[in-house]
Design goal:
- This protein is an alpha+beta fold.
- The protein folds into 3 domains: 83 residues, Rossmann fold (3-Layer(aba) Sandwich); 61 residues, Dna Ligase, domain 1; 185 residues, ATP-grasp fold, B domain (D-amino Acid Aminotransferase, Chain A, domain 1), CATH 3.30.470.20.
- The protein contains 11 helices and 17 strands.
- Strands 9, 10, 11, 12, 13, 14, 15, 16 and 17 form a 9-stranded antiparallel beta sheet that branches. A 4-stranded parallel beta sheet has the order 3-2-1-4, sandwiched between helices. A 4-stranded antiparallel beta sheet has the order 5-8-6-7, sandwiched between helices.
- A hairpin with a 5-residue loop joins strand 13 and strand 14.
- Helix 1 crosses helix 9.
- The radius of gyration is 20 Å and the shape is globular.
- The termini are far apart.
- The model has no long low-confidence stretch (mean pLDDT 96).
- The structure holds adenosine monophosphate.
- Adenosine monophosphate binds next to strand 14.
Length: 370
């Protein structure tokens, strides 16, 4: 256990840091975020060090915390190096280096016994030759680093298209993945503390719109046994990667039920937001606890829950908030960000006494959120 009134440092001050801070406060934990953006969502509920992630004074303030975690994986290596040996950073640098690079991540997933889509690394033009055939004839070319919400990727189904896509992505290192004919997308988070204690979040079913997560539902509609298999994979990855903290695995489920890991986020994830309102521990509390080395328990919601993301629209139209608020079991979570098309501005969680009612309310909620 850390001190009686511990302080948690976070690299990054976006909505995930905001919600980590909101979960940390009632646990008696103070939060300090290092984040250059003056309008960072976490500034409203945490001490905000407004400086670059590599700022020596800012990093010294984080080094004085009991532990440091992060809300995005692209943390500059200099920042991690500056904190090394001064404060526990959880997850640590080796795990982060893996999870921010799609090829290294897939190789490490396979080494841990997880299955992934077929893939071919594309470092240079010559790697494109024969690549599509190797992954089954149709694929998705993704930049190895810095892609999110469907950005930095293109679907390809011919050699000429593949080359064009690589040019359009800027000839940067990429991975070509085979197109997976998945039946559904699910995700599951795992936490592990320094004592090696492991706990899991719920199996969540996800749908996307224009490459951005649109809805999440728990319990998922996946066949029986899927949750157990997802937990086995998550447990194996957490152990093999020496996880300290929380990580979220996104899976494709094939028609036969098999799970392929699509990607891993070394932190809380948009698909876990519904845990805020399901009556149990939230993913944010789970990450805080794991990072501080506290005892852990599973954090599946106690009631059927769902989530719909609120994303900035091209015409600026937002949700019908009066109608959302009138929907039983709906709770809004807004991030205090300036609206922009395609930007995640908030989400609405929905809780219901049974799965049927949840489905009905979710249809009504979706109709209110453009
Ligand atoms: P990602 O950025 O890797 O999470 O991809 C965004 C979305 O694109 C995923 O949630 C899927 O819906 C789709 N997608 C990504 N990779 C594949 C793949 N190999 N096969 C089929 N669909 C994919």
């Amino acid at each position: 256990m850390t001190s009686a009134s511990p302080t948690l440092g976070i690299l990054g001050g976006g909505q995930l840091a905001q919600m980590l801070a909101l979960a940390a406060l009632p646990l008696g934990v103070q939060v300090v975020v290092l984040e250059p953006d003056p309008q960072a969502p976490a500034r409203l509920c945490a001490e905000h060090i407004r400086a670059p992630y590599t700022d020596p004074a800012g990093l010294s303030r984080l080094a004085a915390c009991d532990a440091v975690t992060l809300e995005f994986e692209n943390v500059p290596v200099e920042a991690l190096a500056a904190l090394e040996g001064r404060v526990p950073v959880r997850p640590g640098g080796t795990l982060l280096a893996r999870s921010k690079h799609r090829v290294r991540e897939k190789e490490a997933l396979r080494a841990a016994g997880a299955r992934t889509a077929p893939f071919v690394p594309v470092e240079q033009g010559t790697d494109l030759e024969g690549a599509l055939e190797q992954v089954g004839g149709r694929g998705i070319l993704k930049t190895s680093e810095l892609g999110y919400d469907g950005k930095g990727q293109a679907r390809v189904s011919g050699a000429a298209e593949l080359r064009q896509a690589w040019e359009a992505l800027g000839r940067v290192p990429c991975v070509l993945e085979g197109l997976v004919p998945f039946e559904r997308e699910v995700s599951l988070a795992v936490a592990r503390n320094v004592a090696g204690e492991v706990a899991f979040g719920p199996l969540v079913e996800n749908t996307h719109r224009a490459g951005i997560l649109r809805t999440c539902v728990s319990p998922s509609g996946a066949p029986e046994g899927t949750g157990d298999r997802a937990r086995e994979v998550a447990h194996a990855v957490a152990g093999a990667w020496g996880l300290e903290g929380l990580l979220t695995l996104e899976f494709f489920q094939l028609p036969g039920g098999e799970l392929l890991v699509n990607e891993v986020a070394p932190r809380v994830h948009n698909s876990g937001h519904l845990t805020q309102d399901g009556g149990g521990v939230s993913q944010f509390e789970a990450q805080v606890r794991a990072v501080l080395g506290w005892p852990l328990s599973d954090w599946a919601p106690l009631h059927p829950t769902a989530m719909v993301n609120v994303v900035g629209t091209v015409d600026g139209r937002g949700p019908d908030w009066t109608a959302v608020d009138a929907l039983p079991g709906a709770r809004r979570h807004l991030y205090h960000k300036a609206p922009r098309p395609g930007r995640k501005l908030g989400h609405v969680n929905l809780v219901a006494p049974d799965v049927g009612t949840l489905r009905d309310r979710l249809v009504r909620l979706e109709a209110l959120i453009p």
